[in-house]
Amino acid sequence: MKKASITLLLVLLTVLPLMAADGLINVQSDFSVKETTARLENILKDKGMTIFNQINHSDAAQKVGVELRKTRLIIFGNPKVGSPLMQCQQSVAIDLPQKAIIWQDNTSKVWISYNDSRYLGRRHNIIGCDEVLTKVEKTLSGITKAAATKEYTATEHCACQGTCFFVVNDCLRNRLGQTARPQKIAGAKTESLLL
């Protein structure tokens, strides 16, 4: 009986953390929590996303006498993408706007974690919105990798008449798995990197 109890405990200790992470995508960052958060916010703004809030969980925990490794939450979204998902299955609204946590683990590694769009599709039984889910998946992957990785930094060069172009290195193109190219935004004097 004692052996069975120990075995059950070991199984639960192994399985429960895996279950808790179901549906999360984790991207390791080359930067601190503070810098990763700032980079992610800047990229989200550059992509036209609305940042609804940022919550510093570790500061809030400290105020009530609880020690928590650095953990920040960014709540963000774009109604042009979220609204069509809600048209397909309104219950997905409970998971929107999108959220990303930037956190430090017990070995001092920094991570960005966010909900896998395919997991949300399964969770809410979203049917007929594969194109939107794919767009969300690719966008979140590109944004988080850009925020977390030094290799994703594009160099900006300004040409004549105030128009700026982003020089994208081959490493960035290869890591994105597609041809990254500048895209002119109507009415803007800058070029934005199309991911």
Task: Please explain how this structure is put together.
The protein is α+β, with helices and mostly antiparallel strands and 195 residues long. The protein has two domains: 24-150, TT1751-like domain (TATA-Binding Protein), CATH 3.30.310.70; 154-195, no CATH class. It has seven helices and nine strands. The chain has helices at 2-20, 33-46, 57-63, 79-88, 117-123, 130-148, 170-176; strands at residues 24-29, 50-56, 71-77, 98-104, 110-115, 155-158, 164-167, 181-184, 191-194. The strands form three sheets. The protein has a five-stranded antiparallel β-sheet. A two-stranded antiparallel ribbon has the order 6-7. Strand 8 and strand 9 form a beta hairpin. Helix 2 crosses helix 6 (130-148). The chain is globular. Residues 8-20 and 154-195 have low confidence and may be disordered.
Secondary-structure blueprint:
Elements (H helix, E strand, L loop, with lengths): L1 H19 L3 E6 L3 H14 L3 E7 H7 L7 E7 L1 H10 L9 E7 L5 E6 L1 H7 L6 H19 L6 E4 L5 E4 L2 H7 L4 E4 L6 E4 L1
Antiparallel strand pairs: 1-5, 2-3, 3-4, 4-5, 6-7, 8-9
CATH superfamily of the largest domain: TT1751-like domain
Extended strand count: 9
The span between the termini is 57 Å
Shape: globular
Total helices: the number is 7
The figure for the number of domains is 2
User: What would the average pLDDT be, to the nearest integer?
Assistant: 78
What structural category characterises the helix and strand content?
Answer: alpha+beta
Give unreliable regions as ranges: 8-20, 154-195
String of helices and strands = HEHEHEHEEHHEEHEE
Described by strand count, sense and barrel closure, the largest sheet is: 5 strands, antiparallel
CATH topology of the largest domain: TATA-Binding Protein
What is the CATH top level name of the largest domain?
Alpha Beta
Proportion of helical residues: 40-55%
Strand order within the widest beta sheet: 1-5-4-3-2
What is the radius of gyration computed over CA atoms, rounded to a whole number of angstroms?
A: 20 Å
Strand content: 25-35%
Give the CATH architecture of the largest domain.
2-Layer Sandwich
